[in-house]
Amino acid sequence: MRDDTMTDSLKAKAQAAFKDLARDPGVPKPDPILVVDNVVRRFGGLTAVDVNHVEIQRGSITALIGPNGAGKTTFFNQLTGFDTADSGTWRFNERAMNGVPAHKVARYGMVRTFQLTKALSRLTVLENMRLGAQKQRGESFWRALVPGFWRGQEEEITERAEELLVRFKLDAKRDDFAGSLSGGQRKLLEMARALMVQPELVMLDEPMAGVNPALTQSLLGHVKDLREQGMTVLFVEHDMDMVRDISDWVIVMAQGAVIAEGPPSTIMSDERVIDAYLGAHHDAPLSEGELEAQLHEAEAELEAEIEEETQK
Amino acid sequence: MRRAVIAFTAFLGGLIFLLAGPAHAGPADCQGLRGTLKLQGQPVNGAKIAVTTESGQPVKEVTSNAQGAWDVQVDQIGKYRVTLDVSTLPQNSEVRGGNNVRTPTVYEGNCSTVLFALQPKAAAGQPPADTGQTTFWEQAAQLTFEGLNLGLIIALAALGLSLIYGTTGLTNFAHGELITLGAVIAYTFNVGFGIQLIPAAILAVIVSGGLGYAQDRLFWGQLRKRGTGVIAMMIISIGVAILLRNLIQFFFGAQNENFSDYNTQAGIVVGPISAAPKNFWAMGIELAVLIVVGLALMKTRTGKAARAVSDNPALAASSGINVDRVIRIIWTFGAAIAALAGIMLGVSQSLKFTMGQDILLLIFAGVTLGGLGTAFGALVGSLVVGVFIQVSTLWIPPELKSVGALAVLIIVLLFRPQGILGRRERIG
Amino acid sequence: MDWLTILTTTVHAAIGWETVVYGLAAIGVNIHFGYTGLLNFGQSAFMAVAGYGMAVTVVFLNLPFWIGILVGLAAAAVLALLMGIPTLKLRADYLAIVTIAAAEIIRLIFRSVYFKDIFGGSDGRRGFNGDFYAMNPYPAGHYGIGPFGFDERTMWFLTVGWAVVLLSCVVVYLLMKSPWGRVLKAIREDEDAVRALGKNVFSYKLQSLTLGGIIGCFGGFLYGLYNGAVQPDVFGTEMTFFAYTIVILGGAARVFGPVVGAMIFWVLFVFVGNTLAELVANGYIPFMTTIQVGPIRYALVGLGFILLLVLRPQGIFGDKREIAIDAR
């Protein structure tokens, strides 16, 4: 295990930051790493995302929850440059990020993973890892032709990759094709690969989806670890147990908007959340209007995905 | 099962016809040069043609007959010089490009067709201002008419391509060969067996439908079952195109041919438009078929099922639609109407083993312009492409008319990949 | 039956000019399709602009051979940008249609009567390879053993041709071992993942298209130099399709795959063609004429291509494991 006192202090520090905050959507944080204002995304007549204001505290683990079709993934896509917002601004480390293409977003230190894992199947696990490293000299065409230019750096990268693989218990698989890994191992690989970028903010889109329960604990541990190493984590999740277990702060989205914020221990008892989220899900039967609204949301989410596909 | 047997029999039957056909049609005792002189679709009688060897030894001089045809048989294979005596042409005409000498090669046991494309004298390049015979607007009307004719043919082919794409996701590069195949089968019935063109065409459409069914049942359906991806299938379809095209060339030869009926019809004039009656008939038939297919898509159970499958195959399957059956029906009808398109193309122009390949990209242009996978979009897109191609010859040389259409195809794909009618959400 | 001719032409085909020209086209396609996953169906266009760039510069503008090569290279690079910048953001099937259409546009322009003064219409251009053969260091004579061998002109051509092929293979080998090649292969697998890791996917795709196009363009030069002519209809979609067949035959994403593929392809193509022609000429296949041999062997290429893709998509020497994982 790691240094326990250090772990406790970082966790305590992260949670202390949230101590006296109001439970309102868009509440200002003491030291925000990401500040979002008026982000809107429409598909045809449907508004998938309409976020007025939200801030993400530096060095914390923030969960983003909400019913299906609430626009969480679409919101992720906006922030990371995978989809273009109709309007709005957001600042990462005081740097305006709207309109910045996806690869630059990652270079500035804001790295995401995907709901459907994107392991690069016909590359080995180690090659997957190496790809994540930034500023590689050998990635420029002319220098790639002369191995002398990049050999040294490649060795450093490999060393770092191997350390991470050991941490994520993938070192035995280093020379296997990523396509041969199990679903959970792919999630681990994707997270480890994202760490190769050395990000400040890690954005995880449903890190637990489709993961074998045996691996869940280890994945949870790795997410907590990120905070201990000074990174900020923002993740989308459906599993409330996991949210309660690891997050310091929870943001709730419904119908594209942020409707509530609060600490994980109390957020689920918030009226607005029960109404919008749990109410819609657990309190049967639904009225026709609610049903329709939900359908629209689901459709919006789907269309967002389609949109993402067509951008290719 | 019974259906499969019928289709397979039809498939075999078609192949046998194809094999047998050229034995009748193929001029085994023909070795020499021949051609047909036509001016705006009308035969040119009495034009003098001189054939010499490559070194200039005279071989024979002939005159074109009432059908505009001429024929010179030679004993030696090799290169020949064919000179058309321009002074014997009708007064108002000239050879397109100005060159009245051709140097074709005669191969063993084969007749080479020598082409002299004739055109009215003043029509080259600019619209004639001096003769005053046709004004710009008359020409534009004539070209629009020809464009609609071409557009309807493209639309027939595009409908099948678009439906197959919609239901299976396959971008079928072998669709052009379905067109050629239809035309060649009709030719086999018509010229090989001496059946009048209309029954021959009906037979050919039926046989082609059967071949389409068989193609899906025996090939594409099997690939889908194996889980072959759409991109892999698209690449495979290029192989299918090459295979079919060359098989057709193997049996049919590389020359241009015409059906034996409706070749020499006197043109009729309707307002500013002059065309052979067959063109009006062809357009009528094409339009009728398009309307019937459109209604079938809208009204019949199968048509609705087909549209449901296009929209969302998984959802359609879970709501009890037999997706495979729908796809097979689509293939059958797609191939049948592609065959009809080929026959119509053969009637209005001539038959060649590359006729489908040559028109394929224009079909893609029509389909993408209307929106991939939308049947009605394909129709509108095709008409626009057809008219655009013909009318553009008012300003650009006719040989470059396809360039314009292809440029439009590229521009559409770049800026509005969902087409002019497609909704953005539909793609993907 | 003239078995000796069949044997010698077949052996010659293994290292002959077709193998060189199509091998280069296939090396380019391998970079596009095998490594980057780009479906460029317009490879023939790169070869056409190269061949014509050289021919027109020498014949029409009366400039030296080397300038012709530079013009051809520049033309291929410009074509890569023109074709790539607008299309590389499109879906795979759209890219295929756009590139095939672009190649067709270029062919139609080259063969048009309208531009006949420049490009020579459907007869194309000839008479531009004098400077190339003037550099020939081989004295006149026959080089080889017994019936196998080449004259001095072919020797010179093959020396240069194979040097270019090997050089291209070395470049591909170096690049694909490097982090640059790693990015390309990653794009083939999933370009969004690559984007999320901070790589400029578009720029890499454009580099890949340009590199593959430039290597293909050497195929265009060598085609023109060997045949002494460039004609528009040579550079049709069939040429691109042959290159794809060769890549898949030899195994996609392998450095020597296209070279081995080209050798096998042309050996088979020449052997089958000549054997059929001999059989027909000697009356063993009574229902065929010599003229029908051409289409039948093209048809066999089509059939072989289909069977290869359906039954053995990893190619003859491909790594089964690599394909099996991502079974589509």
Describe the structure.
The complex is a heterotrimer of chains A (312), B (428) and C (328). Chain A has helices spanning 4-17, 72-79, 102-107, 125-132, 141-144, 147-167, 183-196, 213-228, 240-246, 264-267, 271-282, 288-310, and strands at 32-43, 46-57, 61-65, 87-92, 95-96, 110-112, 201-205, 232-236, 249-254, 257-262. Chain A is α/β, with parallel strands linked by helices and 312 residues long. Chain A has two domains: 4-119 and 182-190 and 197-310, Rossmann fold; 123-180, no CATH class. In chain A, strands 6-7-8-3-9-10 form a six-stranded mixed β-sheet, with helices on both faces. In chain A, strands 2-1-4-5 form a four-stranded antiparallel β-sheet, covered by helices on one side. In chain A, helix 6 packs across helix 7 (183-196). The longest helix of chain A is centred in the last third of the chain and has 23 residues, at 288-310. Chain A is globular, with a radius of gyration of 20 Å. In chain A, 45% of the residues are buried. Chain B is α+β, with helices and mostly antiparallel strands. In chain B, strands 4, 5, 7, 9 and 10 form a five-stranded antiparallel β-sheet that branches. In chain B, strands 6-1-11 form a three-stranded mixed β-sheet, with no helix packed on it. A two-stranded antiparallel sheet of chain B has the order 2-3. The radius of gyration of chain B is 23 Å and the shape is globular. The model of chain B is unreliable at 1-28, 123-132 and 424-428 (pLDDT under 50). Chain C has 328 residues and is mainly α. Chain C has one domain: ABC transporter involved in vitamin B12 uptake, BtuC. In chain C, 72% of the residues lie in helices and 4% in strands. Chain C has 15 helices and four strands. Chain C has helices at residues 3-15, 17-35, 43-60, 65-87, 92-111, 116-119, 130-134, 152-177, 179-189, 191-196, 201-227, 237-250, 257-281, 293-311, 320-325, and strands at residues 125-126, 142-145, 148-151, 229-230. In chain C, strand 2 and strand 3 (148-151) form a beta hairpin. In chain C, helix 3 (43-60) packs parallel to helix 5 (92-111) and helix 9 (179-189) crosses helix 11 (201-227). The radius of gyration of chain C is 20 Å and the shape is globular. Chains in contact: A-B, A-C, B-C. At the B-C interface, helix 5, helix 10 and helix 12 of B face helix 5, helix 12 and helix 14 of C. Chain B: InterPro entries: ABC_transp_permease, BCAA_transport_permease. Chain B: This is Branched-chain amino acid transport system permease protein. Chain B: The chain crosses the membrane at residues 148-166, 178-207, 227-248, 280-298, 329-347, 359-389, 395-415. Chain B: One of its GO terms (biological process) is L-isoleucine import across plasma membrane. Chain B: It holds the Pfam family BPD_transp_2.
